[in-house]
């Protein structure tokens, strides 16, 4: 009689390297107070000094933000690509990244329309006085998002995606395996790479130590470094 083997049993006979680490991370970047209507009202009336709170008041900020992105792309001769519906963004990024000569820089900027949470102004009527007034509510809309595909000396490839509409939330996408590869390269430790991982390493204990070293503080440093370089609100 033949006893079936479990997946774990089969893998135990073939695994030559085992480490624990972070794979891909997709992190939200936002101002917490601007995620609620009360915070938006405070921003418009107290911070911006407007007597009446209306989302029309953020249109100049949006225009300036988009203009800054376009100027940044033009001044630095960075390709701007409009993603087509259904197009695999990572395939485009991989193709352009293969031709990028630097270890630290912006490879290209991608533009795509995507649905997101926005604020809009409704015209309401006070049933007691009959007067109309502006009222801000949360809604959803298709707006342009800008993907900054970059490569970092310490983290390897990543991207920052900015929403072009108020409150201009962003997302940071990085890969822990790519971070570890950069660290191994910098320390001169020999390894064999997979597309998304490490096949083998001459110093496996040091590899695990590097995986453990990918901290929230280092990710925060990466974000702040590139926010200082890229146009943003």
How large is the count of helical segments? 7
| CA-based gyration radius | 23 Å
* Strand/helix succession: HEHHEHEEEEHEEHH
Structural class: alpha+beta
**Distance between the ends:** 69 Å
Domain unit count: 1
DSSP strand content: 25-35%
Largest sheet: 6 strands, mixed
Q: Strand order across the biggest sheet? A: 1-6-5-4-3-2
Task: Count the E strands.
Answer: 8
Name the shape in a single word: elongated
Q: Helix coverage percent of residues? A: 25-40%
Mean pLDDT rating: 90
- Uncertain spans: none
Question: Could you walk me through the main structural features you see in this protein, from its secondary elements to its overall organization?
Answer:
The protein has 233 residues and is α+β, with helices and mostly antiparallel strands. The protein has one domain. Helices cover 33% and strands 32% of the residues. The protein contains seven helices and eight strands. It has helices spanning 7-12, 37-47, 59-75, 89-97, 176-186, 204-212, 216-229; strands at 24-29, 80-82, 105-125, 132-152, 156-163, 170-175, 191-194, 197-201. Strand 2, helix 4 (89-97) and strand 3 (105-125) form a beta-alpha-beta unit. The radius of gyration is 23 Å and the shape is elongated.
Task: Summarize this structure briefly.
The protein has helices spanning 7-12, 37-47, 59-75, 89-97, 176-186, 204-212, 216-229, and strands spanning 24-29, 80-82, 105-125, 132-152, 156-163, 170-175, 191-194, 197-201. With 233 residues, the protein is an alpha+beta fold.
What distinguishing features does this structure have?
233 residues, alpha+beta, six-stranded mixed beta sheet, two-stranded antiparallel sheet, 7 helices, elongated
